[in-house]
Amino acid sequence: MLRNIKTYHGFLLLVVYTLVGLWITPDYGFSIDEEIERKHGLMVMHYISDVINVEIECIEGQNDVDYRSYDQRCYGNIFQLTAISLECFLGFDDWRSRYLLRHYMVFLLFCAAALMLYLLIVAISQDALISILCLLMFLIHPRIFAHAHYNPKDIVLLSVYSISMYSLYKIFDNGQYKWLIIHGLITGLLINVRIVGIILVPITILLLYLNLKDNLKKKSISSLIFTLSTCVSTIALWPLLWEDPFKNFIWAFKVMSKFPWLKDLIYWGEAVPSVDAPWTYLFSWIGITTPLAYSIIFIVAILSVSYLVLKNPVKNRYPLAILGLTLGPILAVLLLDSILYGGWRHLYFIYPGLILLSAFFLKKIKTHFTRIYKWVTVVLILQIIFTLGWIGSNHPFQFNYFNTLAKNELGKFEQDYWGLSYKNAMEILVDEYLVNTEKKEVVSSFDYSAYGGYGLLSKRYKDKIEFTWGTEKSTYFISNYRHLSNIAAYQQKEGPYSNKLFEIMVDGVPICGVFKLK
Predict the structure, then answer these.
(1) ∠480-482-486 over CA atoms, to 5°?
(2) What is the b/e burial string over 468-491, where b = at least 16 CB atoms within 10 angstroms of the residue's CB?
(3) Overall pTM surpassing 0.85 (yes/no)
């Protein structure tokens, strides 16, 4: 697969990217979902300890709640179980070390997925330049770049999804039975990460039956091997399925297909209930938070690959599979009327598919439309350079990237909805305003992300400030303007928003502010 192409450029790029990424990972703050994700893992860990009748002393207790009745047991837990196991092994017992461990784990998994995706792009394109360009498109998407350093849900799903596409290709490439088993194990892992991974099962079986080289008997045996491997892996890795697997799987699928998050979204300046979000919500967020040249290539790539697949689905069965793995989840969200929030992060996992479709497209136009290919590559290179510059100049707030289509302003869209910038705001407060103070100042917020951000601070910052809830006993108030009511109070300078000390800005839009309380 790699023999005829110079691939060392991509490997070198990934090494540099990984080293730089590990260096900057501590710069990112705490996302609001991280503690609840750890709680999911603790619940499962205690359930496992009950099942095997072995007490695990290094984890704090959740024994007051039975896992069998835990209302969020629909989540897979393999990532958190791994993280908690490492906590125990390494002896981490404080907030900062526990969550920095998870941040490093998320990023390293993302880099491993990038390597698998790069190998896949090389196999598809058989071209060094196309492979590098597509790899850079994957690595240099501002929001995904940021989330790759802390997001324990959506980036983990994106990463395993990428790896599963590689194992799917190996079935397509050589058809060995060992890859059917490996792919089944990875599919079970994917389903554990998020139940949407079940889409890989019908697409894999379709790919097997479209193989004209094999007779019906071999196709059936191959499908059976893959299905059994997937079932064993799924049940073994997901404790929810250890008791009554079929019933519990159906329950989890129903819950996750329409997760009951019932709050308002800020969408084009309006407060929209999550259950009433229009079908355009997903497409709008993808469109305004993805570099424009990428989006144009993605759209054209989808259309061109769809044409090839319709023309000859058997010959183009692997592109058909990638098309299904990319567009299938979007169709499922629309048909099931699933609740989305926080932009399109729940569908970040389709991004690797978009990259692979782009590789198919670029290879095609290089072969048949050389002049157009040259212009496309020039535009794409310029977009990558511009986006990389933006990422560098807005570090570590890349999660707030909007392109020019958004015409972004405070109150138009959700900005730092996960509260990542609280940590950085507290660091700025200490470094620029409290350098010479001898007593500890008290910082307050109404947002749990601020508490988590405080927990991630190193000792020298905690020596200068402490955190409390409410404003009664604090000197400084911090806000990420999460809701329209907060934005209105801020704009009218009401309550704790009356005396602004400083703000963190991204492209002229405030995402977090610190206010001096009188």
Answers:
(1) 90
(2) eeebeebbbbbbbbbeeebbebbe
(3) yes
